[in-house]
Amino acid sequence: MLAFALAFVMSWGLIRLLMPLFLAYALARPNGRSSHKVPVPQGGGAGVILGTLLAGLPVASMAGMSPPANEALALLALLMGILGAWDDIRPLGWRFRLASQALIIGALLFLLPENLQVLPFLPLVVERALALVLGLWFVNLTNFMDGIDGLLVIGLAPMAAAIGLGFFGLVPPEPVAMAFCGALLGFLMMNRPPARIFAGDLGALSIGLIAAYLLFLVASRTSLAAAILLPLYFVGDATVTLLLRALKGETLTVAHRRHAYQSAFDAGMPITRILGEVLGLNIVLAGLAAATLVWPNIAGGLLVMGLVLTGLLLWRLRHWKG
Questions:
Q1: Which sequence spans correspond to the domains of the chain?
Q2: CA dist., res. 212 & res. 209, Å (int)
Q3: Nearest Cα residue to 307 out of 231, 213, 208, 222
Q4: Rounded distance, CA 108 to CA 248, Å?
Q5: What is the pTM of this model?
């Protein structure tokens, strides 16, 4: 809880302190793909990253609960943030973005201990290659899902809280995850509707990296089913949207407004209702993830339940008629 409180204060305070800088150099102006109507500064994700690292890693160290490769996580999250800030100010080509992200994610995976394996029956190099692809997708889908006020926090904070609390006491707590949750909620103070600041690529990419890292730890040390369930709404919306666009022959590297939450927003669903329904689903998914630890013999059934509930919400959002 110390990590949570420190990260909350640091995130909120840093965003307020840096607001003049964001207003001067990182203003997001509305365009055809935007959900906002007036220029809003971006870069608030910097507070989330710094709050998470500056609070979570020292507290974890003092408690003797430092995550593996914690120094590497700090350095690489900052590098990912620099890459995102560069893209915010001067947009980069998608090939360069993906290659740079892959190098950062690959470096983190390379530095993780060899005994952290999700699928022990696979050769380590094969599993890490698969983790690289999934990590690259997760980092980018986190950025894609940061499309309306508050959704980034609502999508990830319940996951971070579940991991940070050790799935409500079932396994040891994770201070870095609790710091991540606190930093996200500190950002929400400025990002709740109507948002006064956005995360920007500076923040969303690094936030995705930290979230993917925490999920890898859960999958390798606790439960693969839990690691799948926790981010299911974010992964489901982004992945289904990508597949639908591919089936329609759209150019996948071009920005769009095809996500389920965007469809609901454009159809008139109040933003607070979208956030409330996503939050409700994510709380249920966190509960199902914890249940896979209590009843591992029915983890498959719990996973199917999570998939069905997520699919129902995606259908509801895509077909909202007001």
A1: 2-318
A2: 5
A3: 231
A4: 35
A5: 0.92
